[in-house]
């Protein structure tokens, strides 16, 4: 018996979310997404999400504002945003990062709330 649950997702064919994110591989409990070449712009509003996020910076620089704290994220840094935490990002330099969300952000409209 062979396992047929392995998925390959080619990023050039991946769907995009309303905020510019590219959805990558997704399982039942975790999903990946890519923020690619995000440009500096006006501050984004604080949000709370119904999922936990871990991320890794591939290129660029941003500030993560989380529950009254601020950390600068640069190439090679990783971070965690706990489920339900108030947070926002301020892009300082063209920013590319990959994130994993649990449960999957795109399921049940979690990303659109």
Provide a brief overview of the structure.
The chain is mainly β.
Dominant shape: globular
Order of helices and strands: EEEEEE
Residue fraction in strands: over 45%
Low-confidence stretches: none
Q: Tell me, what is the CATH class?
A: Mainly Beta
What CATH calls the topology is Jelly Rolls
Instruction: Please estimate the helix content.
Output: under 10%
Structure description:
With 113 residues, the chain is mostly beta strands. The protein has a single domain, classed as Jelly Rolls (Sandwich), CATH 2.60.120. Helix content is 0%, strand content 48%. It has no helices and 6 strands. Strands 1, 2, 3, 4, 5 and 6 form a 6-stranded antiparallel beta sheet that branches. It is globular, with a radius of gyration of 14 Å.
Feature tags:
113 residues, mainly beta, Jelly Rolls, 6-stranded antiparallel β-sheet
Helices and strands in order:
Blueprint: E1 22-26, E2 31-38, E3 52-66, E4 69-74, E5 78-81, E6 87-102
Antiparallel strand pairs: 1-2, 2-6, 3-4, 3-5, 3-6
């Amino acid at each position: 018996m062979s396992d047929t649950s392995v998925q390959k997702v080619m990023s050039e064919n991946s769907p995009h979310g309303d905020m510019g994110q590219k959805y990558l591989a997704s399982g039942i409990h975790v999903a990946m997404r890519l923020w690619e070449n995000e440009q500096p712009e006006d501050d984004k509003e604080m949000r709370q999400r119904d999922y936990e996020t871990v991320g890794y910076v591939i290129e660029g620089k941003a500030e993560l504002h989380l529950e009254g704290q601020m950390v600068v994220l640069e190439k090679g840094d990783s971070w965690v945003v706990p489920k339900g935490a108030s947070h926002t990002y301020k892009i300082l330099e063209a920013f590319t990062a990959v994130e994993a969300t649990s449960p999957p952000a795109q399921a049940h409209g979690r990303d659109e709330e």
